[in-house]
Design brief:
Blueprint (H helix, E strand, L loop, with lengths): L11 E6 L8 H13 L6 E2 L7 E2 L4 E7 L13 E7 L8 H4 L6 E3 L6 E3 L9 H5 L6 E3 L4 E3 L5 H4 L12 H5 L5 E5 L6 H9 L15 E3 L14 H4 L8 H12 L1
Parallel strand pairs: 1-11
Antiparallel strand pairs: 1-10, 2-3, 4-5, 6-7, 8-9
Amino acid sequence: MTTLPESTTRKMGLVIDLDTCVGCHACVVSCKGWNTENYGAPLSDQDPYGADPSGTFLNRVHSYEVQPLATSAMPHPAAQLVHFPKSCLHCEDAPCVTVCPTGASYKRAEDGIVLVNETDCIGCGLCAWACPYGAREMDQAEGVMKKCTLCVDRIYNDNLPEEDRVPACVRTCPAGARHFGDLGDPDSDVSRLVAERGGMDLMPEQGTKPVNKYLPPRPRDTLDEVDVLAPLLAPVAEEPKGFLGWLDRTLERL
């Protein structure tokens, strides 16, 4: 079995804002594209244009309709649609690592990223069974388990512009709902964002200590009822002036 490092120098991970995610799936497409076109082991598809397509994805977006709790200010809150992106959470106490019989799954001590050495993976599926988040994917073509790598081939690539040295899903998100950084540094941008917005762990009762955090949706703003036509219906002037004023006075004499 693989052992976990006693501590990691950094805790690189994602912060996902559920308030601003619009469910466009751009992160899913960019993840699939980057890993398939640039990574050593592409993410395969089976019968992609047939009646029963399937394939390997490292990032997925689920959508849920939720009913906010009633408050004194909002006794009858409207239901909200929440888009929930999900991928590997790079847990501090990662059960997928400790259950691996060949040592293929491991957690890096330098940055806390959980990876799979695909040359050692035998495709037994124990890591997928142990992961409470369903973040492991069996690649049917390769016969090995695959997972989010936080784009290690991007974030440390000095040949890329600095703004591109983030995971592909973060770089492509049009709503700015995905953030990347060191969650082990309390002064980092992502750590401050988690502190300010009350960032949460996914399923904390599992005891896996996920590094990735989620920012909860904010309550929807409410406005007093406004008659949008009122400004158009109000008189511009009490007495007509100019040509229209002259015309009005002339017609009155007729």
